[in-house]
From TrEMBL:
Keywords: Hydrolase. Residues 161-282 form the Acyl-CoA thioesterase 2 C-terminal domain. The keyword Membrane does not apply. Pfam families: 4HBT_3 (PF13622), Acyl_CoA_thio (PF02551). Residues 33-109 form the Acyl-CoA thioesterase-like N-terminal HotDog domain. Belongs to the C/M/P thioester hydrolase family. It comes from Streptomyces hiroshimensis. This is Acyl-CoA thioesterase II.
Length: 287
């Protein structure tokens, strides 16, 4: 039986159709658009597959240009911008039905020694002390709505919110624009470091914009806003395993002009800062 983790690994296993051209599957799901984390993760796979594999990715910068259509393959065209002595740069354009929907620039760096410092990890409960997302929603609603039942079947990550989900205007009152979740892939992802990096890239788009919405509406109730990712940037500081628990600390410094900015920090259980993330989203009121 195929598991959600198997399906995620399959999504990241692109078909090479030419030296610098790859094709990725896009599941035919009941969604308005292809999940942005899927496109970012697949684009990073394409970029990484054109390197020698000795240099891990240290940063990516991406723009979501058009909504992708579920069920239609996506072609990733890679430009080999630079192969330097210690840095490698790749540019990727994602095309669907002849139209560019996404572009990404990724930089790969050969590890070097240097000085170190980092901010401390927040003091939060361990993931074992927190309920799974689906269980918390069931406790509140009695059962999962159909859209969330579909999400639970395909979700490849165990997600546990550090703070209880808020549902009513009273619970939302005076809420600060920040959130934190523990995550890990539901099953093993294998030994390829690029797969772990791309899986975490996929996951990084799942909850980051929560921080923008939290003061305004319940995260898992009826939506008053149509939401879409506009861009996404990540900086990878240390190696990691995406099938081990990581804490995703998220906050929103500003929302204005129908756009909200969110930033995130990803820590492992030992408190090491692994990844930094920034994203801007579009928020348009429904109706």
């Amino acid at each position: 039986m195929t598991t959600p983790t198997d399906r995620l690994v399959g999504l990241l296993d692109l078909e090479r159709i030419d030296l610098n051209i790859f094709r990725g599957r896009s599941p035919d799901e009941s969604l308005q658009r292809v999940f942005g984390g899927q496109v970012a993760g697949q684009a990073l796979v394409a970029a990484g597959r054109t390197t020698d594999g000795d240099r891990p990715v240290h940063s990516l910068h991406a723009y979501f240009l058009r909504p992708g259509r579920p069920g239609v393959p996506i072609v990733y065209q890679v430009e080999r911008v630079r192969d330097g002595r210690s840095f490698t740069t790749r540019r990727v354009v994602a095309v669907q039905q002849g139209r560019t929907i996404f572009n990404l620039t990724a930089s790969f760096h050969e590890p070097e020694p240097g000085f170190e410092h980092q901010v401390p990890m927040p003091d939060v409960p361990a993931p074992e002390e927190l309920p799974r997302l689906a269980d918390e929603i069931r406790d509140r609603l009695g059962e999962l709505p159909s859209a969330l039942r579909h999400m639970e079947r395909r979700l490849a990550f165990d997600i546990r919110y550090v703070d209880r989900l808020r549902w009513t205007p009273q619970e939302l009152a005076d809420t600060e624009p920040r959130s934190a979740v523990w995550m890990r892939a539901l099953g093993p992802l294998g030994d390829d470091p690029l797969v772990h990096t791309c899986a975490l890239t996929y996951a990084s788009d799942m909850t980051l914009l929560d921080a923008v919405r939290i003061p305004v509406e319940p995260l898992w109730g009826p939506r008053g806003f149509d939401m879409a990712s506009l861009d996404h940037a990540m900086w990878f500081h240390r190696p990691f395993q995406a099938d081990e628990w990581f804490l995703y600390q998220q906050e929103s410094p500003i929302a204005t002009g129908a756009r909200g900015l969110a930033r995130g920090q990803i820590f492992d259980r030992e408190g090491r800062l692994l990844v930094s993330v920034m994203q801007e989203g579009l928020f348009r009121k429904v109706g």
